[in-house]
Amino acid sequence: MKKLPFAAFVLVLFVFVFALAGCASASGEEGSGTSVYSESPSNAVVQPTEVKDYVADLKLAMNSDTVKQEVTVKTFVDGDTTHFYVPESVMEGGVLKARYLAINTPESTGRVEEYGKKASNFTRERLSKATSIIIESDDDKWNRDSTGSRYLVWVWYRTSDSEEYRNLNVEILQNGLAIASSTANNRYGSIAMAALMQAKALKLNVFSGEKDPDFYYGDAVELTMSELRLNIERYNGIKVAFEGVVAKDDGGSVYIEEYNPQTDMYNGVSVYYGFNLPGPALKALSVGNRVRIVGTVQYYEAGGLYQVSGLSYKLMDPDNPNNVKMISSGHSAAFVKTSPSTFVDGKVSVVSMDDDGVEVVREYDYAYLALNTTLEMDDLFVEDVRTTSDPSSSSYGAMTLVCVSDGIEVNVRTTVFTDGKGHLVTADAYMGRTIDVKGLVDSFDGTYQIKVISPKDIVIKD
Question: What CATH code is assigned to 221-332?
Fold first, then answer.
């Protein structure tokens, strides 16, 4: 028998191997069904060949061993955090602060990131339309997250009684509005990962490589504090730059105020600086400094207020115009002496421009214009004290002092007070006493109040 030439042998071997590989590929497809993904030569997922609604495939099993509770929304925080009303038997205080399992959406509160607003709006839209919402634990108990103040949950909702519940966590992943967060290591890990991989393959939202249409990429808009305060809703989501004096530090946030000669009042804003700014920026934000702030305006749902966040400081570029910058030092908070009647019933007329550039006169509540600025109020009689009693709340022990003066009621809200020995200051310290107060103009549930950060800012007179 003649031997094949070497070149012919190689050709036959190549054809044999190619055919064998094709059979193996066909066999694999027949055994596993139609693949959701096609693969590039580098083995990377590039494009789905079949788009699936993984959320529809996932069913809520009411008879499983997990803990479940029907809830209603108290506060939307961002895309992966919501506060729910629950029975007192579930959580003391009747509120469960939920952190969604398996997902991490872009930030839209303390700092603002691309697609953060879209993720937050997605969660709000879905749950606002829900006729029923059920939260579910990952095992047989409610588990806290790493902060210790939130609980890790699956969130299920439906928009009519005839529909099946949809899993919002997986739906957020499926729409490309979150990155992985221990996504595979939980009760619904396999389907959550499949939804995430499909979103990546489809290049949806955070995986698109495209600019977020709701994110402000432009240069900071230079404003006066008055312009910012009077039109803060207009600048929501916009990067702004302004100056003012640091009046108070609330641990993670500072309150900055500036005198407005037109109204003979101070205007102010809360600025969230977080816990990641380098030393020079923190030094610039010290109380008593006049500073230039560059950050993004955003509505902080949990606090019910507009604030400025997203501050930065580049150590290698100290002259960068986007840095937090100290202008001067040695200033003092205003602590404007204010009567209860002015605080509760006062009105202020302000001349401003409408959208067509025409001067108009608008009337505002005095306290609205004074929000986030410092004031002093004397001779308040403490008629009642309400204390936050939920041990799991970061405000556990904080008090609302219900005060009266000349028949006018003013609420004074404290942070958590401790004395020199670290003991909690309780209602007994203030109940039935007359006090002088230095604090910040604040608002809660549509009612103006005075926020006091330190016990030294309340002087007991009798």
Answer: 2.40.50.140
pTM: 0.70
Euclidean distance between CA atoms 33 and 94, whole angstroms: 48
Residue-wise pLDDT tens digits, 255-294: 999 998 788 899 999 999 998 899 999 999 999 999 999 9
What span, in angstroms and rounded, lies between the C-alpha atoms of 120 and 178? 11
**Is 3.30.450.180 the CATH classification of the domain at 54-207?**
no
Structure tokens at 263: 């109204």
Among the listed residues 220, 231, 221, 225, the one whose alpha carbon sits nearest the alpha carbon of residue 352: 231
- Residue range 364-375, pLDDT digits in tens: 999 999 999 999
